[in-house]
Amino acid sequence: xxxxxxxxxxxxxxxxxxxxxxxxxxxNGDATEPVRIWSAGCSTGEEAYSIxxxxxxLMEELGRKREVKxxxxxxxxxxxxxxxxxxxxxxxxxxxxxxxxxxxxxxKNDQYHISKEIRKMIIFAPHNMFSDxxxxxxxxxxxxxxxxxxxxxxxxxxxxxxxxALKNGGYxxxxxxxxxxxxxxxFKAVATTEKIYVHCASGKADDLQxxxxxxxxxxxxxxxxxxxSNRNNDExxxxxxxxxxxxxxxxxxxxxxxxxxxxxxxxxxSDFVSIVPGKASFNLFSLIAEDLKLIASTAVNRCRTEHxxxxxxxxxxxxxxxxxxxxxSVQPIAGTSxxxxxxxxxxxxxxxxxxxxxxxxxxxxxAAAQRIADLEHELQGSRSELRSTIGELETVNEELQAxxxxxxxxxxxxxxxxxxxxxxxxxxxxxxxxxxxxxxxxTMMDNDLSNFLSSTMIGIxxxxxxxxxxxxxxxxxxxxxxVQQDVGRSLQIFAHSFPQEDIIADAKEVLKNLAPxxxxxxxxxxxxxxxxxxxxxxxxxNIRGLVITIIxxxxxxQTASLKAQANSQN
Length: 570
Prior knowledge:
Blueprint: H1 11-28, E1 35-40, H2 46-62, E2 68-74, H3 77-85, E3 87-89, H4 98-104, E4 105-108, E5 111-114, H5 116-119, E6 122-126, E7 138-143, H6 152-165, E8 166-174, E9 187-191, E10 196-199, H7 233-249, E11 252-256, E12 262-266, H8 284-287, H9 290-306, E13 310-319, E14 322-332, E15 343-349, E16 358-361, H10 364-455, E17 458-463, E18 469-472, H11 474-480, H12 503-513, E19 517-522, E20 528-537, E21 543-552, H13 556-569
Parallel strand pairs: 1-2, 1-7, 2-6, 7-8, 13-16
Antiparallel strand pairs: 3-5, 4-5, 8-10, 9-10, 11-12, 11-15, 13-14, 14-15, 17-18, 17-21, 19-20, 20-21
């Protein structure tokens, strides 16, 4: 399990793949069909995600929207599990451009998470390309740095699989140390340096026949598919000779699975089992001779039911080599579970020797009657299950009808509630309009009041019951050195321009007695002012602070100067 991989490994090769193969696939393919790509030997998924990013970029650049299916497979299940999570370390920033990293990844807890848009293109699955069926109708196969670990025989098998899986005109993308030049009639080079090839289905492919993998021989006495790593070539050749020698003398037989499909042939079974024209099938009852179909059906059914060997003797069969008398045996294979259901079907020449299990002379009438009885029993069981299923469906249908009625009722209630909400919404809209109108009036009044106060030579200062400043005009602000940011602060911390007056004491006295104070005061500039401190009363006659008014007495300076002149004359 060698998992050496990176994002955009050999960056120039991936850019060439984007400009040639992927561009042609998107431009020339049928827009109604999905783009099918196979990343064989994907390891932890970096290669598959790199191809997905290139396809997404191309679709945005070309303005084409296609369904994309990328089959990413590997024999290492742990690597596939890691790849499917789409979480990678910070080190991938060395292989991915900042633009792609920002667009297709999300950073969380010092890790990068692939975006859902890219992840949904890819199907990760464990897969052995030699024993599992390959994918079909592929537009592109990417198999990079996998072939270098295979011997030439396996490499040839891989190219045969790729030949079968690719569409005509599909592309093959290999690693920089790999080549398909040996099969140039089938895989023609598009970019030799970048190892990109186009598939030519009509090319001569005699040497590229897909491998056929059979199930290992289940007979315990003969190990056909031993896989010891220390086996040498001489031992392998000797074992092949033994197997070939034994199969010459084994009786004609086949092994079937629980679906009655033949998984192995032994001996010369062609007289009893042969391939028939039409759609390929390995079902025993499709391949077995007509004279043996009823016998085989009866025997296999009894063997599965009774879990014991069954043998019918002295059966006449017409074969290509003439008429033969055989014994037909069906035996469950020891060492397999009931779920496997492996059964050996043996065609042996008729003898008087004892055979394992139940031995019966085959009677067509009784066998037919038995088979009919079995079929009738199966039919009754199927009818019973069908009636039960129909009953369950009727019950479910009634429940669905009741649920539908409830939903209709709920829908009507929702419609009624919607009408009520619509009525309330209209009322709220009316109230909101009224409030908006009043707000406009209050705004206008506030503007009028602000302009009135700023245009008069009257200083007005509003304070609350704790002598905190609430509002003031610009005129009085100069006398108390106030700025707009002082709103909310206590008046007691500010100096004023009337050194002979204790305005704070007067304010507290007014709050206590609720009697206004009205007097003339002299400012630091020796000008005379009329100061009035009065309670701030609300419309409900509640005291909410004080109003301090300061008016400039313009005539008093003249009077003072006259008095000063008279005194000097005296």
